[in-house]
Design goal:
With about 170 residues, this protein is mostly helical. The chain has 8 helices and no strands. The longest helix has 25 residues. It starts with a helix and ends in a 13-residue tail after the last helix.
């Protein structure tokens, strides 16, 4: 069995290393292991999702499955690569602070836009392409739950322009 699966696993780890250069080997291997488990669990022949969701979701709908699965898997791998033990020296503080500053600015802009337009959370969630509980997290500024890609996508959905200024560090 290992003869069959070891070569593709090594190719997958190598490709993932290029996409997630900051990930530790441990995080990459665990993340990919979980990814494969998720892919196996999505198997539509089980029929579980339809039953569990009361018919609202159907794993046999491959377009819907991939539309939801790919961001989930990508987010999980990104989170695994960012979750590094303190002893292994996490990303430099400047990178973390810069990322947090950008996310904070985007969340503030989205909250201001929602307040200014008078949208309900349900309307705002639909506009931004998310769920009402997720929008509630945004409105409570739960910054750790949102990555830059998601927030930039949401600002675009809200028809907000994003400008960025880069300067040398002091």
């Amino acid at each position: 069995m290992r003869r069959k699966f070891d070569p593709p696993w090594k190719v997958l780890v190598k490709a993932s290393r290029k996409a997630l250069p900051d990930a530790t080997d441990e995080a990459l291997n665990w993340g990919l292991f979980f990814l494969l488990g998720a892919l196996d669990f999505v198997n539509p022949s089980r029929g579980w999702l339809s039953a569990l969701s009361g018919g609202k979701c159907d794993a046999a709908d491959t377009d819907a499955a991939f539309r939801h699965l790919l961001p989930f898997l990508a987010g999980g791998l990104r989170a695994m690569s960012a979750a590094r033990p303190a002893a292994k020296a996490a990303r430099p503080l400047r990178r973390v602070a810069g990322n947090m500053k950008l996310r904070s600015a985007l969340i503030s802009a989205l909250k201001d836009h929602i307040a200014r337009t008078g949208l309900s959370q349900s309307e705002a969630a639909k506009l931004l392409g998310t769920t009402q509980p997720r929008l509630s997290d945004l409105m409570r500024a739960k910054i750790d739950l949102f990555d830059l890609d998601t927030l930039v996508t949401m600002t675009g959905a809200a028809s907000l322009d994003v400008d960025m200024r880069i300067s040398d560090a002091a």
